[in-house]
Write a structure and sequence with these properties.
The protein is of the alpha/beta class. The chain contains ten helices and seven strands. Strands 3-2-1-4-5-7-6 form a seven-stranded mixed beta sheet, with helices on both faces.
Length: 248
């Protein structure tokens, strides 16, 4: 499929299913982002995708459901948000493209991925903060701890450690938005039933579940939205490695 047709279909899907006001200017920014991902992915493994359609729907559209979630929670746009373990910039960059007023921090521990993010930031003029650090580290830093309205997370596998590094960054009343497959979210071993203890320790609770389907994808997806209702105890997050070895 030609690129023009590919992005026409992309825009049609987004306006019909995710964001009715998705503009032509925003679509053009996704085209630039798309080209940079394809080019940089030849040099090192930024992101896994099978086809161009897979990149568009499994990654771009999936990320844009994060923006839909934010818009469902608040009319405010001057929010402070962090995307943890962002990798190639998702969901943060798609969210920033469609909600440009958001003050976005991308957190990524791998330096070469940060170089890619800096390149995209410059090309798209997004004015993002890019931190080449681990989330556990910034979670104990007063400059970042409990400073965010929104924390985003996608493709981070283990649920309890993911909550432990994310919730401390939120202000009380802030939201943690995490992308999951429906099966993963419902799993007794690694889904919602497995993190009740972690949520109690961290001071958050499940606010809502947003289910959705993506074109050409066999799995059902959902976004889980958690609201922080009290200060997180100072001992969380624990040092790097401990949340994975000894989940709450």
């Amino acid at each position: 499929m030609e690129k023009t047709e590919l992005f026409k279909n992309f825009r049609n899907f987004v306006t019909a299913n995710i964001l009715p006001d998705f503009s032509d200017e925003q679509r053009q920014k996704f085209e630039i982002y798309f080209d940079e991902l394809i080019e940089w992915n030849k040099m090192f493994n930024l992101i896994s995708f099978k086809t161009e359609n897979d990149l568009i729907y499994r990654h771009f559209c999936d990320s844009l459901y994060g923006a839909k979630a934010i818009k469902s929670l608040t009319d405010k746009t001057d929010l402070k948000a962090a995307d943890l373990g962002t990798g190639s910039g998702m969901p943060g960059i798609p969210v920033k493209i469609v909600i440009p007023q958001i003050k976005l921090t991308l957190v990524e521990s791998i330096a070469k991925k940060c170089k890619f993010l800096e390149n995209v930031d410059k090309k798209l003029g997004l004015n993002m903060e890019i931190l080449n650090k681990r989330a556990e580290e910034i979670g104990q830093n007063p400059a970042y701890r409990q400073k965010y309205d929104i924390v985003l997370s996608r493709a981070v596998s283990k649920f309890s450690p993911n909550l432990e590094i994310s919730i401390p960054l939120l202000k009380v009343g802030g939201y943690f938005i995490v992308h999951k497959t429906k099966n993963s979210a419902e799993s007794k071993e690694e889904g919602l039933p497995s993190v009740e203890n972690a949520l109690r320790h961290l001071g958050a609770k499940l606010e809502k579940i947003m289910p959705y389907r993506l074109p050409e994808q066999e799995l059902d997806y959902c976004i889980l939205i958690f609201k922080k209702y009290k200060d997180t105890p100072q001992q969380f997050p624990r040092n790097a490695g401990i949340p994975e070895k000894k989940p709450l």
